[in-house]
Structures are given as C-alpha cells and as structure tokens.
Amino acid sequence: MFYKVNEVAKIAGISVRTLHHYDQIGLLQPEKLTSAGYRLYSENDLDRLQQILFFKELDLNLNEIKEILDSPSFDRKRALETHQELLMEKKNRLEAIIRSVQKTLNSLEGKSEMSKEEKFKPFDMKKIEEHQKKYAEETKQKYGQSNAYKESQQKTSTYTKNDWENITSQANEIYKQLAANMNKGPEDEKVQELIGQWRQHITDNYYNCTIEIFRGLGDMYVADERFTANIDQYGEGLASFMRDAMHHYCDMHQE
Amino acid sequence: MFYKVNEVAKIAGISVRTLHHYDQIGLLQPEKLTSAGYRLYSENDLDRLQQILFFKELDLNLNEIKEILDSPSFDRKRALETHQELLMEKKNRLEAIIRSVQKTLNSLEGKSEMSKEEKFKPFDMKKIEEHQKKYAEETKQKYGQSNAYKESQQKTSTYTKNDWENITSQANEIYKQLAANMNKGPEDEKVQELIGQWRQHITDNYYNCTIEIFRGLGDMYVADERFTANIDQYGEGLASFMRDAMHHYCDMHQE
DNA sequence: TATTGACTATAACGTTGCGTTATAGTTTAT
DNA sequence: ATAAACTATAACGCAACGTTATAGTCAATA
C-alpha cells in the first residue's frame, strides 16, 4: 500500500511542503515515484516519518535527525528508549517552569516578592554550579589536589541543562525549608535532618563531602560574601544559621 | 539600579545579541541610555523580560508576545493564569507522546502493532479542524450562505496553535468517553450528557450548532466516509452510534 | 471527448529569531 | 597612555519551512 503526499500529510498532521522539504534534503525520500513523478510513500516511509517527528519533539534539527536515522548503528529500540528518557526530562523542565509561574502568581497576590535571581532561576542554572565549583577550587588549595575537586569536575562536566534545573530546585527546597525553621535554633532535630540532606545533596551532585569539608564549607558560608549574599536571599541570616547548624552536625557525626 | 546588556544577559541566561534584537524590534527597549549609547535596563525592564521568556516557553512568536504585553488591557495576572493552563496542556501533550513512544516500544517487543493513525495521533491537531471546516462548508451549500459558515471562518481564523491543541484534546476526550460508553446504548443518560457536551464543543469552537444542524451532522458522520473512518478510530462503530445518540438527543430537544 | 476541479510538481523568494562576523567607539585597569 | 574588556551598529548567514507562481496530471462530469 502506498500513499500520496496529501494522504501522508493528513495522517501525520504536517504540511505537504514539509514532505517536499524532507525529500529535498534527503531526510525522507519516498520509496517510489509514479511515471508522472508523483511521490509514493510506503509503510516503511511512514515509520521513518514517525521517528522524525519524535526526534523533532526533542528539538533536534533535521540534520541531526538524518544522521541518527541513517547511522548504520542506529538501533531503533534503543533510540526510542533514550527518547523516552529525554521526553521525561523535558517534562520535568516544564514542571519546573509551571512551578515558577505559580510562584510569580503568588507574589502577585501580595505574598513575598521574588528576588531578581529567583525570578530567573528556572532559566538560570549556572550560578550554584559556579559557587560550588569555586568552593571546590578553594578546597583544592586548602587540601592540596584533593579528590573532591577532581570528582566535582567529573560529575559536573557531564550534567545537562535539565540536570542543573533539577539540582537547583532541590537545593532551593532545602534552603527554603531551612529558612522556615530558623526560629527553632540550629540544633533542632528537623534542622539537623535538613542539614543532613544538604550534605547528601552535595555528595550526590558535586563531590564526596566529608565531615571536615562540610565543616569548612559552613565557615565559608559566612566568611565569603559571595556565598553569604546568595544564601541570605532565602532569609536574613540564613548563612550564619547554616554554619552553626553545620558545625553542630559535624560535632555529632565525628568519628 | 540599572544593568548593562551583559549583566542582563547573564541574569536571564540569554545572549547579548538577543537583547539587541529585542530592542530593535521594540519588544524590550531599555529604560535609559548612557551618553555613549550604552543600554541601561531597569528592574521593570527585567520584569518585562521575564514575561517575554515565559511566553516564549509557550512557542508564542515575538510579535504575539509584543502584542500581548503592549495591549493596554493586558492583565498580568490573568495572562499568567492562562499561561499556566497552556503549560499544563503542553505537558499533557508531552505525556501523550510519551505514552505513544511506550506503545511503539511495546509493539517492537512483539506486542500488538499500532494502527497507522494511532502512531501519529499525538502529532495531529489539524485533522478534526479540517473535518469540521469541511462540514461547515457543506452546511453552507445545504442551507445557503448560512451564518454558521461565516461564524466558523471568523472563530477559527483567530485560533492559535495552542488553541487547536486545546480543542483537539477536548474533542478527543469526548470521543473516548463516548467509545467507552457504547455498550450502554445511545439513549443512556451518560451518553446523552456526552452528546450534549459534544454539541457545546462545536458551538464553542466552531459555529452555533442548532438542533437541525446537529441532526444533519449526525447523518453525515455515517454518510461521509471521511468522518466515519476518523471517528471509528476511537472504537468500531462509534460513528453510527453517535448518529443514533445525536438523533435521540435532537428528538428530546425539539422545540 | 472536452473541460473542469482537485491534486501534483518544481522553482524561488519570504519569514522568524537570532548567530556570527566586521568595524568602530567607550570604559576600566594597569 | 595603552591594552583589555565591553559596548554599539551594520549586515550577511541560517534552519525549517510558508507562500506564491507556474505548469503538468488525473478523475469526474457536461
């Protein structure tokens, strides 16, 4: 069974011109032509078109799609699986944006104003990275060419934009909860739990955060104004509160 | 406090060139210029930029964004709420695609093959439109230059891509529910409710669907194979089931 | 059989949203 | 005062089609 351009266009919800274009650039050339030069698409062609549209949904450009589909090593199943994952990430990103809109709406309803930085957070994604990396660099100088630095380099170098949004929003959540619990004092159980999460967050995403490093990190939050300013966005005095809480945490977790 | 291009670019995660471009097309013109002609952006400008980026995330083009933001009737809060809804729909569409990929994966694993139409369903979004428009045209010929046609032209001409996604997914939902309730017979209460929703859907999105037109539409679902084939995708025999249900509905709503 | 209307083809310029030089003036740091 | 870093305008480049324009093809009808 073969289909003419218009039929294919309708089935797939695209324009005839698009099919012409794909033919022209060699992305999707119909299996047969009539004697008059009319394009005739086979089922296989439709399958390929489906793939193309999937990849397009991921914002790959036509050239990239062509390369992928034409690659002899192209494994359809594996591609679709990767695909699936990427789509999930896209969804996560969308959800992050939705939350951001929600926040803006809240702030418009007279609740706390968002800080400039916070407004752009879903679009941002490099700031925390930079801070953490700078700290890692300073760690290096303090402790020599430590593993922490190398690990950080390794870990962060492979992160995608979506990864950063994820990490950022996690960090955000922890900061906010800490800010909300400041009144209970740095040794409060809930606070200590959050501090534990914070250390885990760093370990998961940056480098193996040992007790010593963690203690040093707390100090730095107060000593280095770049950190202080950033952290205090979530609540006045949060940086020094975190330092205290982190110190207590380290005292409790000494071997 | 004012910011220079590079600062703004970094905060918002976009390029300087983009800011130049937005200035050029009048989408975002900085509040002040230095004597040397350097752009100086205010907090208000940053707010506007935030809006722009939000709308961009919805695939609105810069012109549309400009119109929305420049409209004196622009209500920021309402815009954001609409915004929020559109994002949700985009998410739904993504989820549909994810399910579709999942299905393809299943079929690759030897489970039941997907139908041609089913494969492309998530990408569609114009099909129903076309059918409805064609019907509107045929209505014109039957009833003379009826208002229905003109209304349809008017209504549909102003719809955006997102509107269509919206409308399509609504229609989809109704079809699916009808298909799920076919076993109860065309006169069942739930079915009749859905048929009412269907009429409302047409009235809301295409033209004022009177009882007579609605009855004719039911007939057409069976008489015209383009409709039949399309509708029966949702369930074998759905087209004629809908005709029966629509007839009953019209009988009950006769003045 | 001739014609008409719907569909097909190629060709080529138009459009959107910037990226990318190229060229030149400005500010800041040494 | 001289370089380094940043700013400006101008203008061409590019992807992925949309949009005419012009012409051939095919099926149905007069």
Description:
2 copies of one chain form a homodimer. Chain A has 255 residues and is mainly alpha-helical. Chain A has 3 domains: 66 residues, Multidrug-efflux Transporter Regulator, Chain: A, Domain 2, CATH 1.10.1660.10; 39 residues, no CATH class; 131 residues, Globin-like, CATH 1.10.490. Helix content of chain A is 71%, strand content 2%. In chain A, strands 1-2 form a two-stranded antiparallel sheet. In chain A, helix 1 crosses helix 2 and helix 3 crosses helix 4. The first copy, chain A, is elongated, with a radius of gyration of 26 Å. The N and C termini of chain A lie far apart (73 Å). At the A-B interface, helix 1, helix 3, helix 5 and helix 6 of A face helix 3, helix 5 and helix 6 of B. Chain A binds a DNA duplex (30 and 30 nucleotides) through helix 2.
What are its keywords?
homodimer, 255 residues, Globin-like, 13 helices, elongated, DNA-binding
